[in-house]
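Example record used in the benchmark description.
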Amino acid sequence: MIYWNSLADFLAMGKHGLYVWGSFIVMAALMILEPILLARSRKSLIARLKRQYRAEKLDNHHPPREDNP
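Model output (structure tokens):
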């Protein structure tokens, strides 16, 4: 087990603090951003599918006209 004499020793992590805390911060940021980005992507996809559904519904409601020359 590792024991630290002070908070500074704990943060330094035996001279590996920059790597340890940098990795921790990056992972925490990714874990926070992932659900946010997924929610935004889902919202965008649903909006796009609704537009596509309305467009297809309009196309089916109005069949193409046949022009007689």
